[in-house]
Every structure is written in C-alpha cells, then in structure tokens.
Specification:
The protein is of the alpha+beta class. The longest helix has 17 residues, at about 65-80. The chain has a single domain (about 10-110), classed as HIT-like (HIT family, subunit A). About 25% of the residues lie in helices and about 20% in strands. It contains 3 helices and 5 strands, in the order H-E-E-E-H-H-E-E. A 5-stranded antiparallel sheet has the order 1-2-3-5-4, with helices on one face.
Length: about 120
C-alpha cells in the first residue's frame, strides 16, 4: 500500500535505521543522505519517509509531502553552500531509477552540462 514501509525497499530500511546512511538532514516527513555513488562533488538524496514508488505516484497521493521533498532539496543546497544545483527525479528503470522509493537527487559542486547524459 502506498505510504506504508516496504520490507524489500532499501530506502525504507534506511528510514527505519536498519541500513546505515550518512544523513545530512531530517524532518518529520523527509530524510536526506549522501549518495553512495556520487555523480558530483555534492550528491544528496532527499526522500519522503513514507514509501511511494516514484515522483508521479507521490504527487498523486500526497501533494503536501511532494512539496516537503522539494523544500528539502533547497534546504540541502543551502546547507551545502551550493549557489547553483540540479534536482533530478528519475521515474522508471528506463530513466535510471534503480530504487523504487521516490527520491530527489541534489547535485552540485561542479558545472553541470545540458542536456544531461
């Protein structure tokens, strides 16, 4: 069920404290932690604590939580002293989503080219 922790979800396990992560921010509804395979000098993932498969599912189920996640991307960028950064949501395996718990990538600390990969 949407919003409920999933036993087989890596990010749900991180939220529950069963798998360690380098946490940089936490709110009542979100968790932000460093990506273990960074693609930029700063690469932080911002996730809702509630399980939703992807950005579209989150937006449909809980617009307020969607806003929380986006608000936290800016807070992470500010704490990391990024004057410019990229926020990315991959939706579906064809777009590079490998963990099916919605997450925003906050990337910065170097020039980011357009179009991306």
């Amino acid at each position: 069920m949407a919003g409920e922790p999933q036993d087989d979800c890596l990010f749900c396990k991180i939220v529950a404290g069963r798998i360690p992560a380098t946490v940089v921010r936490e709110t009542d509804t979100t968790l932000a932690f460093r990506d273990i395979n960074p693609q930029a000098p700063t690469h932080v993932l911002v996730i809702p604590k509630a399980h939703h498969r992807d950005a579209a599912a989150l937006a449909a189920a809980d617009p307020a939580l969607t806003a929380d996640v986006l608000r936290e991307t800016e807070a992470v960028a500010a704490e990391e002293n990024l004057d410019s950064y990229r926020t990315v949501f991959n939706t579906g395996s064809g777009a590079g989503q490998t963990v099916f718990h919605v997450h925003a990538h906050v990337l910065g600390g170097r020039g980011l080219q357009w179009p991306p990969g």
